Each structure stands twice: as structure tokens, then as C-alpha cells.
Records
---
Amino acid sequence: MNYIYKNKKRFLFLVLALLPGFAVAGELNQANTAWILTSTALVLFMTLPGLSLFYAGLVRSKNVLSVLMQCFAITCLISIMWLAGMYSLIFSDGGSVQAFIGGLSKAFVPDMGPDSLTGDIPESVFFMFQMTFAIITPALIVGGFAERMKFSAMMLFSAFWALLVYVPICHWVWGGGWLAELGAMDFAGGIVIHITAGVSALVTALVLGKRKGFPKTAMPPHNMPMVVTGAGMLWVGWFGFNAGSALTADGSAGMAMLVTHISAAAGSLTWMVIEWVRFGKPSVLGIVTGMVAGLGTITPASGFVGPAGALAIGISAGILCFYAVQIVKRHFHIDDSLDVFPVHGVGGVLGTILTGVFAAKSMGGLGLNDVTIMHQVGVQTIAVIVTIIWSVVFSYIILKVLDSVIGLRVSEDQEIEGLDIVLHEETGYHNL
């Protein structure tokens, strides 16, 4: 319980207030409530429309609607699943198995009312805020199998993945599970969101195989203005993602917002400079991808580091994620369509480990609570390794079972025609 008590705002309010028979003394804090309401809207804004437009612009025009549809459908699916039991399995008391999974006492939230509090904010607000995190995580994986997965397979994969991968890992880290007990630090989702989604996207890309023509046929983004628009929405929405995770309207939220912005800017400029030097010209796609790398990498550290640490993390993200993209696509020829693993997966791993370094007061952070940098880096590394293994194993099992039952991939002719017409009988651009 050591880490829980030393990070009271994150765990006392997120875990203990939800245990049966436990109540946190205090009254509704309107300032905190207003901020988390705002943050909730910002995080949902990241998926709808931010991520949706970002991904839709990156694919070919014949698949633009399929990506928008996938993100929209996942939002609806996870919202209902969250109410039915995901929230309870993460944030309620699991009794004898609490270290690994929560219980079902809060399925369909029977005891939630207008006056129910989690800490000093309404439980309904906390419920919604955490729901938006659960929504965007499987939506990120869409980029790994874009332009070739059946819609039915996508829906079933997202549902089973949310239950078997997201729920347990989220409970381990944020629900008072064994990684929280161990002392793992993940302020806003480097482990829970970016590593799980990035690694799982890589698995889906490998299981489904390459798109027809990859890597010999060029498959550039069909609408770069759409990509940049979506990227800008992600940047803005990420403030709710990271600063909202403080669950308070105070200096900790302000610092989380500041370091988020610094890392995004540093990641963008670093990626741009590398491209400029290597290829002779800076690309728009490069600068926005660097921004996403900077944002994903700072996420686990955002509540623990200072501005100098954020600058170092952002620069590191721009460098490592850039070369990860080159290795995955150009060396191994893995068709992770929209670079989910090299950006989110690699960034999540990097940020999670660097949290153990730059959270130290000697590195300008807010402190490591009486442990050494080496100790914390060791804990962070354990969390990374376990999360990767769990995500790989269960993603692979889900995909193979679905493939044997309904099939994962559209036919070659359908892929050539485009998923918009084949799966939805619609087209994004009527003049094409």
C-alpha cells in the first residue's frame, strides 16, 4: 500500500472511495468538479473528432469512412460495456483477488446518485472521465489494422480486448492492484493506454498481414488538412487527458498541462529537424507525428516531472519514435498502417521508464518518495515487461479465435475496392 498512500490524490480518491463501506470525508468541490467535467469533454474530444479525423486523413480515400465508423462504433460499444461492468471490475473491491481484478458490485452502478462522491467530485463525473480513457485505447489500435479488417471482427476484437487486456491492466495500475502496490508510476496512461494499444496494434498488424501492395506500392495520406486538423484536436484534448488526471483544479493540474505542452512541442520540432536533415525537407506529416510521440511519451510522467524533464522526454520521444517508424516499416516491412506501435507503443515504454528518472527531485521532478532512481526505474521496467507480455498474449489469442470463427480480413477484391463501399455501402467523396 506504500505507493497508494504516498500518492493520495490519485489512489485515495480513485480507489478507496469506491470500496464498499468506505467514505471519504468532505464535501463537493465545485472547482474540481468543473475542471474534471471540462477534462472529460476534452478527452472524448480526442477520440471524437480528434483521433477519428487524424486516422481518417491518413488512410486512402476509399477507406476514409471505414475509419470514422470504427472510431464512432468503438465509442458507443465501450460506453455501454463500461456501464455494464468494466468500471466495476477496475474500480470496485475484488476481495481476495483485489491484486488482480475488481468485483462486480458497481456493475450498472446501482448505488450512484446525484450526491454520490468520489473524493470531492461526483462519482458520475469520475465514472465519465475514466470512461473516456477506456474509449480511446481500443480506438488507437484501429491504426494497426486500418484498411483491411472486417467491421464485425473489429467490433468483437475491441469488446474482448477491452475486457481481457484493458480492464486487468487498468486495475493493476489505477484500481489498487499489484502494480500499484509495487509502486509503478503512471499518471495518465503510459502503461494502461499507450503500451497496451501500441503493442496490441503491432500484434494485429502481424496476424492480419500486409495490405495488398505494401511496401512496394505508395500509400500516402489522402487528406493532409484532415490529418493536421485531427492532430490539433488531439493536442488540445490531451490537456484534459493529462492535467485532468490530477483530479483537482490546482497547481498539480497546471504543471501536468505545462509539461504536456512542452513535450509535444519538443517532440514535434525534433522529428521535423531529423526529417529536414535526413531527407532535405521537413514534412507536415512528420511534425504532427512528432507531436503525437511527444504527447504519448509524456503521459505517464505528466504528474511527476518538471518542465526540464518534459523537454528531455519530448526530445527523446522525437528521436526514438522516428527511428522506430523507420525500423518497423522499412527494415521489418511490418504494415502497422498508421504507426501505432512505433509512436504509441515505443513512446509509452520510453515515457514509463523515463518517469523513474525525471520524477526525481535531483532531475527537476516532484520526487520519488524515498526510493532511488534505480529502484523506481526497475519497478517501471517490470510494469512495462508485464504489460507487453499480457497485451501480446491476449491480443493474439483473441485474434486467432476470431479468425477461426468469423475471419478477420476482407477478401483481396474487397480490399482493392475499398472498405467504405464494401462494408458500409457509402463513399466519403462522391466525385471520386
---
Amino acid sequence: MKRRDFLKGVAATGVLGATGFPGIWTKSGNAWASNNEIPVGVLFSLTGPVAVVESTLQNACLMAIEEINAEGGIHGRMLKPVIEDPASDPATFADRIRRQVLRDNCVSVFGAYTSASRQAVLPVVEQHDNLFWYPTLYEGRECSRNVMYGGAVPNQQQQEFVPWLAENFGGRFYLIGNNYVYPREENNVCKMILDDIGGEAVHEEYVPMGHSDFGSVINRIRDMKPDVIFCTLVGDSDVAFQRQMHAAGFDPETMPVASLTRSEIEVKAMGGAAAAGHFSSAPYFMGHESAANHRFVEAYLNRFGQDEVTHFVNEAAYFQVYQFKAAVEQLAPSDITPLNIRDAAVGLRLLAPQGEIEIDPNLHTYLWPKIARWQADGQAEVVQQSARRMAPEPYWAYEDQMCTAEGLVRT
């Protein structure tokens, strides 16, 4: 199903040590580190409607920083997190990252969950040649040289998921999502794949963010009898929809809800019984069997509480800090700048909880697509995993555009 192949020549790189750091690194008068500290911005919402998710991203980011500092930091310098609360507001995201870049001299900033907040910080980091580490799955169609993209793009979630669903349940899909850019772009990709494999979207509709009454939607689903309900609802809407589907008695064995956005966070909110038997596609699930993931989950639960969960976005918020560390370790002291960190990060391979990942020259990340069925206990059973790391292609659905190391190229 892959619509174009990227020529990849990226080899694994070693991590080099360095000694004799000066007391301060500079570029154009900005101090990137001093007083044995390396300032990094942490920009996740702790208040407002998306705080329920973004607070878990901050938890994972800070846990990685704490672990690195406990091991001696980077070249003996401690990472200093500069924390701001953008309060779930895109305009506040732009204001707070400006503080972190200009006032606090952060050499990189980790943050954000929604596409709106990412797009709000983008002009700031591009204007000031800083580096933003974004951990969230997103809709693609972006190719900034100032953003490190850690989450899945559409081909990494749908390329194997949609054909698998059609093969196992049938090719008649009902598309339901919230009314903003991410669901619309993902549904465009879904329809493209369905067209290629002989399936069809029997209905497509969008509801406002926060929408919670799905009675009319459920009636249409009952009447149309699709094989699969392809869901890009987020947050409270996803929780409400799945609870109402469960209450209406739909059987996941014959008409599953297949989600790109549902993680352990949403399943915890809706209840395992409501989610049981339905599917999600993501690079990471909490129950993934690997030594690296066992360490991550154990550390996270010990740090934040045994009733907490890890999920595919806070896993990326965690591993991106380690990608930053590995990149900085490759640079000579005088070369530590945001853009040099970016260039050093390209091609880096790292053992993350989901498996070995790699940063592509387009600054997106090779990831491990997984298809999982939700269980009544709130955990996901992986039923299929990609046989290889999948290349990130943020313009996969657009044959005349490609994100490259030089930026966006039109072919």
C-alpha cells in the first residue's frame, strides 16, 4: 500500500562524549547553558480542557529529565526544566514559548498536544531559530525545519490498519470525527486507502469539539449497518460516544469501532467494559512486551501512582528527551545550538519503550505501528505489529509533495 518510497541512507550513529566544557555556550549573544545547567522549556497545559492529557505528557518529560540528571546530566551539566503552563490556549502557547526562548534562553522546548498549539508556536521557533520537540500524532502536511516530530503521521497509523480492518470485518466504513483539521485529514487518507482496496466510506460526518449527545449518530449507524466505525473523535467526545455505543448494545465482533486517537487515557475515562473488543492503531500501548517498556511503565507508576497509565503520546514525550540527550552528546561544546542539535539528531537510533526508533532527515520519526484490541481491564492486546519500523511520510496522501531534509519539495 505504500504510495512512495523514500530513499533512506541513514546509518546508526554512536554517542560521543566530550570534556572540557566552557562555563557558557553562546550564539548571537544568547547563553545556551551556564552555571552547570542546560535550560530546556517544558510547555504542556496544566490547566484548561486538554490538561487531563498534557499533564501526563509533562509527567513523562520531567521523568526523563530527572533520570538523565540522576545519571550525571549531559557532559556533567544538569538539564534545567523551565516550566510554563499555556492553559490549553494556542495564543498563550505562543506567548509562553517566546518567554522560554528569549528570556530563559532554552536551547530546545518540549511541549504541546493539539495541532492548534503546535501551529501557534511554529512562527516563534522559526523566527528565532529554536527547536520544538512535539510528541503527538498529527495529520501530517507540515514540514518545518524547527520541529522534531515524535508522533505518528497518517501512513504510520493507517497503512496497515485500514486494510486489516477491511479484511477482517468488511470494507464499508462509517467515518465519525470532531470538526477540525486532524479528523478531516485522517479521513481523507482513510478514503484513499479504501478506494485502493475496493472498500467505501458509506457516511462521513463531523461533530463539534466536546460534543456529547450521539443519539442521532447511533441511529444512523444502526440504519446503515457499516462493517467498521472509523473514529477520530477525541477526548470527551470519544468517551461519550463509546459509552453510548456500548449502552446501545452494538457488538464489536461484527461492527467494531476503530480509533486512531483512543489510548489508555480515554479508555480509563470511559471504562474498560465500554471499550472492550474495539480497536486502536498506535505505535505504543502500555502492555507492549519489551524490557524497555517494563522499565518505563514501572518507573512511571512508581513516580506518579499505581493507578496511572502510560500511552502513545506520553511515551513519545519521554523518548524525545532522550533523543535530545543523544544529539547533544554528539556535539562539541562550542557547537551546542538548537539547529546543531537538530542536525545531530538526524539518523539517531534509540531503543524506546515501543522498539528501536530513528529520526528521519525530514525530522519525523520511524515508529512501530501496532493494532490492538481493548480489553475489559482497560489494557490493549496487540494483535498485529509491523514487521519493521515504518518510515514517516507526512505528505503520504499527496503525490505531488514530499517532506525532505531540505524542506517541502513539490514533484
---
Amino acid sequence: MVVKEFIQLRRDRVSFAMIVMIPVMQLLLFGFAINTTPRHLPTAVLLQEDSDLARSILKAMENTAYFRFTREVHTVQEFDDLLLSGKVLFGVEIPRGFERAVRRGDRPALLVAADATDPVAAGSAMSALGMVVQTALQHDLHIGDPVALPFEIRTHARYNPAASSRLNIVPGLVGTILTMTMLIFTALSVTREIERGTMESLLSMPITPVEVMLGKILPYVLVGFIQAILIIGIGVLLFGVPVNGSLTLLALLSTLFITTNLAIGYTFSTIAQNQLQAMQMSIMFFLPSILLSGFMFPFAGMPVWAQYIGEGLPLTHYLRIVRAIMLKGATLPNLQYDAIALLALMLLAMTIAVMRFRRTLD
């Protein structure tokens, strides 16, 4: 019996590959990509004066390794739009006449706004601001440790002022649960037909491969939509998560996300030779989706190569969408990049699924 099982395992190459790949993937992802103290976080600056002190403050912020200035804006509206869309996690505003006011002793205000929808990413960087001030003052004003700072740092944690982790986790669970269930529902669809011996009846029907795929997917779109309503409803009523944006927009983009995951699951179903392999493929896809999407760990703190992989995962884009709509009140123009990315991933998965199903017919 032992010999038989080894022979069967050797013949099932997909299962054998999963045995090797799953622990290797876990080790690489946890070892290299996961960072609980994210650094080099994208930051925008609204620099209303180009003074030595202002530049020193910005340089000191970069030297902490928490802030990475990626955008320089010229209006408050651009400043707000970047935070709202999630393109930056921090915004620094240095007002006009800042250095002159410091030297006169007027204690002007330096504004640091943070996207606090991810408290882990924002917390460490905000706590490093005290050292930033001291470094800049010693460099440009040539003073030691002052009793009172000659200017004021006003920190504003937007969208989640209390740094409540549930406001970050609960919207993320919407996408995570939908990913898991939608993948499993459709990953077994074609392989189940083959194992039950009903594939011949399916092929005898006067419908095209595209119609077969849509027929398999559409019922589960409704199932996924009901799941999303339940999760969001419980999050709002039980956990107090706000919905500051449009429910209609959230429903439309959630439907797009659900369809994308169903298409990917259906693709796995056309590739796998049996239901076990389909389940294994779903797990292989679900694992990086959790780790590299920004659900468990800050996305901006991951290495660049891991972020590139994350951008190819539907969950990454949906997490940005659901958190932005529920917590920030974002609109479609703020979310157009992630919406287009979801649409592209859906079309790609559907194309591959139809091509694979046609090969099955041949």
C-alpha cells in the first residue's frame, strides 16, 4: 500500500509540485516580503516656500527611512486628492514664510497629514517626527535641545483618527472572504463535471465555450453579492465601521471584484485534472493574496518586487477600493486605476479560461 501511494504521488505531478511549492512560497513571502515596520512610505509635500529650514526638515524626514517623497504638489486640492486615492500615505505642508516666522519666534505650524486607514503603517512614521525636528533645528538654527520648539508640528490622522484596527481589518475581510469562497466555488466547476461523468452532456448542449463559462459564473455572482452585503452589514452594525462613500459605487466595484475571482477560479478548473488539483491551485493563489495584498501587512512597506506581484492580485486593488469608499468617501475618479486593473485582470482570466476550455473540447 505504501509503494502504491508513492507511485500515485509520483504520477500526480501537480500535487507533488504543490508539496514543494507551498512551503517554499511561505518561507520566501514571510522571510523577504513581510515587514511589520514599514519604511520608505510614499509621501507628498506641499512646499509653499523653498527655504533652507524647509529643505532640512524634509531631508531629516527622509533620513528616518520612514518617509519617501514621491510627489510635490502646488495646491491643497492636489494634496487632498493624493491622500484620498491612496497614492501617498503621508502629506507634509510647509506654509509660506515658515523660516522667517521661526526666526521671529512666532511658532508657525508644520502640518503632517497621515492616511490612518492602516494604523500600523502610519503609527511608526508619526512617532519618528520628534527626532526629525531636533535634527533639522540643530542643522539650520544651530541650537541644542530646546525647551520649547520654535515651531509646532500638527499631525492629523485622517480617516481613522482613533487608529482603530477594526476599521482597517473589517473592510479587508470583505475582500478576503470573497476571494476564498469565489475561488473555491468555480475552481471545482469543470473538474466536477469531468469526475461525475456529466461533461459529455455539457458538451452536447448547443452553446459556446463563452456561454458555458458565463453560465457557470453568473449564479455565483449573486451568491458573492449576498455574501458582501452580509459582511458589510455586520461590519457596520456590529463593529461600527462607517460607509462614507457611495453604496452604489461599492456595489458595482464589488461585483467586478467577485466576477474577477470567479473567472480566475474557472481558469483553475480548466487547467486542473481533478478536484484536488483545483483546490490546491486555489490555495496557492489565496496564500499570496492574503500576504501581498496589504490585508495582513502594510503594502507600502513591502519590497518593490513583492509590490509588483501584489499589483497582479485582484485582492490588492479591491482592498484599496473598499477601504477608500467606506472610510474615506472616495469617488470613482479617485479609484479609476484600481477599477481598470480589476477589469483587466477579469478579461485576462476569462480569455485564458475560454482558450483552455476549447482545448478540453478538442
